[in-house]
Specification:
This protein is an alpha+beta fold and about 350 residues long. It has helices spanning about 80-85, 90-95, 230-235, 290-300, 320-325, 335-345; strands spanning about 20-25, 30-35, 40-45, 105-110, 115, 120-125, 135-140, 150-155, 165-170, 175, 185, 195-200, 205-215, 220-225, 240, 245, 265-270, 310-315, 330, 350. Helix content is about 10%, strand content about 25%.
């Protein structure tokens, strides 16, 4: 659901160009992570419904008497800096490569983002034949170059049979909201806000679920907005995404047309995300958390969010109005039109590929 602090409004998604994560400056001292999840858990075409690092004061040495102790150093209060002092988990352990998500062990969270102190509820469909599995929860960041740290592990032992997801033939929407909650994680009130992933594992089978932990009570210099609407727009789980599949769309063929026969008119958040595995027309890693967003998270947390002005990062011409509003517009692996516009305006262009 959308964060109350601050409000996040996503640019309309009108074509196969995926919008990159947005970074904005607001007042305060702690990083808040937001999502663009709409109040109604569905997406329709065109209407897809840290802090500055404080320097550590130098030690004061009192020369007389000679035995006087040094004054204690003041620790860095930046929660992102403190969080990234924790030991990381090797990327070979937590990372799930494109195409490696198991079709026999799938799931999602009932909400894209959860406030600290509340519960993250998982709906898992386990058809592996073994009722036991584990859910390893990681927070993404820098962590000395490992990119994530293990937060906790949940154990599941009882068998749960999930019903067939609900399909709306008129729109092509497939909704697995009728699945039962199988597992829950009570987020500690001391948890650091950020983007998390849950690796559901049974033997050599794994499925990765992204979600956000937010802190409604905190303020921040920077807000990082995930493009989860884009993840779901390209997500073809159930048969169709907004660009093609086995949905009801049947437009006449047009050169360069965005809609294709079989596109859905609406897609649901209540589905496992298989976008990174190529599950859906045009879908791929570029349309997921591990496109531009993860690289941005890694870089921001590596540098302790030491940014003094407002920034907005995008790869799509759709975000031009937001790029025009900030102090530092940055285009990231842009589409051809945005590349030309950035070149004309002298905007910075970077690549995270």
């Amino acid at each position: 659901m959308p964060l109350a602090l601050p409000d996040a409004t996503a640019a309309p998604l009108t074509g196969p160009d995926a919008s990159a994560a947005a970074i904005q400056q607001i007042a305060g001292t702690e990083a808040i992570f937001t999502t663009t999840t709409p109040a109604v858990q569905s997406v329709t075409p065109g209407t897809i419904t840290g802090p500055v690092t404080a320097p550590t004061p130098p030690l004061t040495v009192i020369e007389s008497p000679a035995t006087a102790p040094l004054a204690p150093a003041v620790s860095n209060p930046n929660p992102i800096v403190l969080e990234n002092e924790k030991p990381g988990t090797l990327q070979s352990v937590w990372q799930v490569d494109p195409g490696e998500d198991s079709p026999n062990l799938e799931g999602f969270t009932t909400s894209m983002s959860t406030n600290v102190g509340d519960a993250v509820n998982f709906k898992i469909d386990n058809t592996t034949g073994n009722s036991s599995y584990t859910i390893s929860i990681y927070r993404l960041g820098y962590y000395g170059g490992d990119g994530a740290t293990l937060v906790t592990t949940l154990q599941h032992t009882n068998a749960v049979t999930q019903p067939t997801a609900i399909t709306d033939p008129s729109t092509g929407e497939v909704d697995a909201g009728n699945w039962s909650v199988t597992d829950s994680w009570q987020v500690p009130t001391t948890a650091t806000s950020g983007v998390y992933v849950a690796n559901v594992t049974q033997g050599n089978q794994v499925f990765q679920i992204p979600f956000v932990v937010r802190n409604n009570a905190s303020t921040s210099d920077i807000v990082f907005q995930t493009s989860d609407e884009t993840w779901q727009a390209y997500n073809g789980w159930g048969g169709a995404n907004l660009y093609g599949g086995d949905g009801p769309s049947n437009p006449p063929p047009t050169p360069g047309g965005e809609a294709s026969p079989g596109a859905a008119f609406a897609v649901s958040y209540n589905r496992p995300i298989v976008t990174r595995d190529g599950g859906g027309l045009y879908a791929g890693p570029q349309d997921t958390l591990f496109g531009a967003e993860y690289s941005a998270i890694y870089w921001l947390e590596e540098n302790g969010y030491d940014l003094h002005d407002s920034y907005f990062y995008s790869d799509s011409m759709n975000d031009l109005p937001l790029l025009e509003q900030v102090t530092h517009p940055v285009v990231v692996d842009p589409d051809p039109r945005l590349h030309e516009e950035a070149k004309r305006r002298g905007w910075k262009e970077i690549s995270l590929r």
